[in-house]
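Folded chain entry
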Amino acid sequence: MGILDAILGFLKGPLNDFAWMYTFLPCAIAGGLFLTIRCGGVQFAHFGHAMKNTVGKMFQKQEAGEGAVTPMQAVTTALSATVGTGNIVGTSQAIALGGYGAVFWLWLAALVGMVTKYSEIVLAIKYRERDKKGDWVGGPMYYISKGLGQNWKWLAALYAGLAALACFGIGNMSQVNSITGSIIGAFAAFTTVSAGMEITLKWIMGIVLAVLVAVILLGGIKRIGAVTEKLIPFMSVFYILFTVIVIGAHWRGIGNAFGLIFSTAFTPQAMFGATTGIVLKQTVIWGLRRSAFSNEAGLGSAAIAHAAADTKGPVNQGLYGIFEVFIDTIVICSLTSLTIICSGVEIGFGVKPGSEL
């Protein structure tokens, strides 16, 4: 048990910090800047066109061919992994661990993340293929092996293996933990939750969620797309509505909220002081980390969902990547941040919170 604890401590400590600080974040930012220049700043120059051809067509009837989903279903499938956990938990964690200034770096990462997500989706559509069942399949493992050549198949296999493992830690485990934490918190608001009752609730929620997810997944890509197409817009609209209500009730604090975000983006201790332990490095890291967690730009996982879209071409679907990052991070994460700051909720800086914040 001591050996296992030592391994987990290393993975969660030095290795985790090294992976984020010195590998993923530099590559994500440098790659995003390169793609911005290489693609002519598509996320800025053609932002209006992207919105017109994505959200502007959201309520138009869309149909998909055999083994595919509609472009909008591909978007909602990708967003289903981040809207909620990525926006609520991720944003609250960024503020708690990096201070208010982390929101600025979250925005900055999203601006370059738009073109990164756009490029990932374009490549996923360009290099996708039909599997034995006739369904469209694609993603980083496909465009690495087919786009870079046979000599890079090892990298495609490595990505596929690591992505499968990451689904448990980054996605499923954190999402289920946040859901059960919210349910237990709701019970605790009305009654005393004993240790036994907490364990029982966790088991019940785990079984219920497993059954619901199984029913959806076993129906294939068509059922996944059909469910997310109905659930995600409904969930997003209601969440946006409720955050706007809270912000509206504290509208006098909006200016101060933006002031806190920008004033502490480069000098966090000017606001929090040395006692919180929040320094510029932490502000930058947590802003960039939570942005990646929120919109998945650079992770490649969303491209797998988009590869199944019945679309006119790679660029057409790539525009949905710009829309996806914009609505996910720039809109929803910003509203979450303003809700937290404007409402004056007490934050334990330096303490990693869950969805209960």
The longest strand covers residues 129-130. The two ends are 32 Å apart (CA to CA).
